[in-house]
Fold:
Amino acid sequence: MSSTSRSRAEANRRRETPAKRSKGGNRRSWPRRILWTLLALFVLGVAGLGVAYAMTDVPKPNEVATAQTSVVYFSDGKSELARISEYNRESVKLAQVPIHVQRAMLAAEDRNFYENKGISPTGIARAVWVAVKGGQATQGGSTITQQYVKNYFLSQDRTLQRKAREILISVKIDGQQSKDQILENYLNTIYYGRGAYGIQTASKAYFGKDVSKITPAEGAFLASAIRGPSFYDPRLGTEQTKNAQTRSSYILDAMVAQGWLTPQQRTAAVFPKFIPYQAPSAAGPNGYIVQLVKDELSKKVKLTEADISSGGLRITTTIDKPKQQAAVDAVDNRMPEGATGLKVGLVSIKPGDGAVQALYGGADYAKNQFNTATDATMQAGSVFKVFTLIAALQSGDVSIRNSFDGSSPQYFDEFENPAGETDFNRRGGVRNFNNRDWGRLTVPQATANSVNTIFARLNIIATPKKTAAAAAAAGITTKLNANYANVLGSDSVKVIDMANAYATLAAKGVRATPYYVKEVASTDDSFDFKAKPVTKRVFDEDLVSDVVYSMQQVVERGSGEYAGDRLDREAAGKTGTSSDNYSAWFDGFTPQLATAVGMYKGDGSVKEENQMDDVPGWGAITGGTIPVRLWTDYMRVATEGMEKLKFPEPAYINKDAAPKQTQRPQSTGGNTGDTPRPTTRAPEPTPTRTSEPTPTPTPTVQPEPTPEPTKTKPGKPTVPVPTLPGPTPSTGDEPQG
Structure:
């Protein structure tokens, strides 16, 4: 270019407008401005995160995370009876979890767990990108720490707001807790399926064993299950089984790649076997015990429903596992097939202590919550005669050496009933079973054969009020009526009360309050309870020895002879049958164990359809039929291995007693029915006594034992049992039980 041209170009440049120069300069400054803007936003973002981090507090654990199952044990403190919980969880320390199980979880969920800061930036970015595209913030970012935070502190909602809180809290938690503590809380918090929260409960739900015994293959499966239990539980089908096998293999291979498992160990890790699924519920016969335990914890130990259902309690009951199983088996084997509506209750108590060692209140608590052992009341029948015997001995006017007229029928002014259904009842008539004449019998003989006419006389001597008082002192808690017919069992009682009342006699006159909970402890050692038996002496020991001696005759040679022939140890008891067979009993005891069995039909009310008089394979049910057999079946197992103790010898108190002279009850002399009684009565002669207490020999004629039915296959009643009505007056025509 010439000098002239250069000069012309320079002149043109100088003539360029300021506007043009400004436009070019702005184009060059925009990148710098954007850079400064982004830098400012970054600084603000970091500052904002800092402020958010500082303002975010670690919340309190949610209820689901802290709830733990309360485990109910049998009396050995080891055998599990049931679980009480809204959330089935049992927390353990990390040291109890084998290292290969811990590593299976890391291989499945977070292999960099011990190196990261609680979050995964790439995972978080992936979750945000999904949310920006319109999805939910559900993918990525789920380190073990984040999963722990979500399950332990937060809700399960799937939003960016919850995800942001999860991230911030995860970073905080990672700085506040050790990695081992985070992993321990994570393993105890997450859901594994089958209703199991936490790895200990999951180990038992899938494999039936403690987590400390879990193998690498089993650990790999548990690590698989947390992704989605409904996709991996083999019980749900072949597809789930295949999913579980594939996922477990992936985890085991990852453990080899991480150096956490040797190739040889990997080869040995075959897909595990599983136990059948068992829903944690208070079902079956044991469900009645669980409810009684819950009631006692609430009323006696003063625990709330929340304490019981989610407090992680370890509850040891008084229920002996072998005895409980024996009770269930005895009922299952003895209840006749085809006998619709029959109900039975059984309670077994430790004398002098009150610990309930076995209880049968029904076949399935889940279907019917009415407890035949503790809720039902039924007429006592002849089992109540024992209380009249106690009252008569307490009066000082009767000795068990005395003999009485056992003829039938007899008429007593005191038993007159103007409103009676028959002329016989209105005139105070009392019959023996089958209207049998027994002649003169001693008190033990009359007890052995449940002679109504003799016990009617004893109640006149004792007075009905004292009979009722003796029953209450022994342990009967239901309302009792002070009428002369109470000796024949007109009052309605509970099986639990009869068991406890007879346990008082087995304990030589010491009554104990029945209880079901032996001890309770919490997993965090914040609560500890140990039961103390509540006892009281209510009867003189010598008096009880005479009563027990009389009751021994029932088992040795009387209406309960079936038990004596098959129980290889000393026992005492009493059969009982109410009028028209509305209820039937056998209650008895050894020195170490008292057991009551009561049977009734339908709702127990006095209606014709509730009479147990045409039971398939049995005919009429009395205390000497199914109840004594059921009692014997149970007691043979329950007393196995116990020392064969003997009862105290009878003391023969009131040895110089002669019954008070009253009008002699007139006997019609045999089975002549409702023969009118004479208008005058001769006085009762005073029984002959000797200087030494020698009981009169038992009569040689005994009632024929009820034959064993041929039908042995058990059957279970299915009709629900409503609350039973109150006492129904006895007709006085008391069958021998």
In short: Residues 41-61, 136-140, 154-159, 667-737 have pLDDT under 50 and may be disordered. Residues 542 and 651 are 5 Å apart (CA to CA).
